[in-house]
Every structure is written in structure tokens, then in C-alpha cells.
């Protein structure tokens, strides 16, 4: 096996171990890492939304960006660049986030949920693959957000600097941030431990180019399974870890912070897969690219954070399954506003896909 394949496998195994450790230390079940959920929590912590149960400055996000930044500098791969349709990327980032919060997790959390026995995540995987296939169809039509260009240092360091300042503020004046007293936002591993683990994961993800959407996209588009190995390694590591710990729970109903409204699990992840292909990487990859100097990915991350704020300010996000007073299952899902948002997302992604594809003049 090629050296590059071993690198992405090792990165996948360590990401899986890190997720298991963070969950054991206090993060919500099946949520050792979730880019969408953690960016949503940060959006709440800085006051962009008022959902009291999901507010916390997640050190994992800070660590991922700074870890990628340090590794890119050390490997002489830090290259400030920008200018590839930033406004479009902002909008795509927002809708990818809305789709993820309809499903209640990013592609990384989807894999972690699968490793915990959550069959709803398999429905999400089906939607994710469908979305990637749709994106690939437009790539074959010549879809492009155009090239990026070398930029000044300040452009490439925007997100790392923002994350570093956020870290300093959290350590120096934590009282200025909102923090959940109940719900997922109140469940977290010790901050310093989470930060250190995320620094390592960010560095590994930068070096290995780990990407959830990239693995499936490349496997279908160019028959290259290189990145797919990392995807599989995360799943197998988490699966084995949950089986060993006795925390594996197979089924659809009452999975941790998940709902069994199958249609909207599927459609939410179609939106995520399609949007991520257009962006050139999953939410995790966008953080890593931004840490490596990509200003366009930094804009995408800001779009995701704003999308998370919209999702919770306008009740677009999914609601987990629960039980009523009689102990009967109450299936969660999304409100009508969330359904409308998903449909609007498909319309927006279709418009972006068509308007940024080469005309039929390639008909020849």
C-alpha cells in the first residue's frame, strides 16, 4: 500500500480514537467531533443565536484550525490565497450547515454515529452519497468557482488569528461568552484536553488531506480510493471502540441527539453532500484549508457559522427523538420552516451549479 494511503489510514484511526476519548471525557454521545454542531455552539456562545442548550466555545474548532496552521507552516505548505467566488462560497457554506443541522451532524459525525450503531446515520450516508453524485454530475459539466490567487499574509491568516483571539478571550474573560447550563452545549470534555487533542487532529488532517466528501467523490469520479481509506478507518475505529466499551446501540429510535425522520435525514445530507462537492471539501476540510492559508475556505467557515445562527434563530434545525410522559416514542425531525429551508437550499444549489458550469458549447 502506498505511503499516502497509510498516512490517511493512520490519521483516520487517530481521529476515531480522539473522538472516543473526547466522548468518554464529556462530549455528547456519538459526538466526539462534529464540525457543524461545534460551530453552532460557538455561534451561540458569541450571541449569534439564543438557543440556550447549544452555546459553548468549543476548543475543538479552535484546535483544528491552529493545528492545521502549525502543520502547514512546519511543512512549508502555508500558502495564502483567495479570490475564488467568496460570496458564493459564503452562501454555500450557510446551506451546507443548514443541511447538516437538519440531519443533526456533519459528515464526520455521521461516521461517528454509524460507529455507535445509529442506523439513522446510514440513511444520512445514502443522502450524502446522492448529494455527492449530483455534485459530480455538475463537475463533469464543467462546474467551477474559478481559481484562487496568491494573497497577502493577512488574508491567509484570517481564520487562525480569529481562532487565536477567541482562545485568548475564553481563557482571559470567559464571562463574556454564553455557556449552556443544560443540553448538548453543557456536555464537554475538559477544555485544555479538548484543545490539545484537536491540535493533533488538525495537524494530521492537514498532512493527510483527510476529507469525508473527497473520499467518496474521488472514488466515484476518478476511481481513486485513497481518501476513502480515512473514512473507513474512522468508522472501524469508532465501531470497535464502542463495542469494547459496551456503548454500541444498534437501531433507529432514541439514538443520542438524533431523530428518525428518515426523509429529512436523507434530504439534509443530500444538501450537505452536494454543497460540499461544489465547495471542494467537507466542513472539516474547510477548517483545515482555512488554517493552511485559504481565504476562500475561511469565508466558507464564516458562512457556516452564520448558517448555524439562522438555523437556530428560525427553527430550521432538527429536533431529536424523545419520549412522552407515558414513555412512548416521540419521533423528532424538523418543523415546516426547516423543510422550506431545505427546499430553498436545493433551489440555490441548483442555480449555483448551473450558473457556474460551462455552457452547452462544450456540446461538441
TrEMBL record:
GO terms for cellular component: plasma membrane. PANTHER family: INNER MEMBRANE PROTEIN YEDE, SULPHUR TRANSPORT DOMAIN-CONTAINING PROTEIN. The keyword Protein biosynthesis does not apply. The keyword Cell division does not apply. InterPro entries: Seleno_YedE (IPR026366), Sulf_transp_TsuA/YedE (IPR007272). Keywords: Cell inner membrane, Cell membrane, Membrane, Transmembrane, Transmembrane helix, Transport. The chain crosses the membrane at residues 61-78, 90-110, 122-139, 159-179, 185-205, 226-244, 264-284, 296-317, 329-355. Belongs to the TsuA/YedE (TC 9.B.102) family. It comes from Vescimonas coprocola. It is found in: Cell inner membrane. Pfam families: Sulf_transp. It is a multi-pass membrane protein. This is Membrane protein. NCBIfam families: seleno_YedE. It comes from the Bacteria.
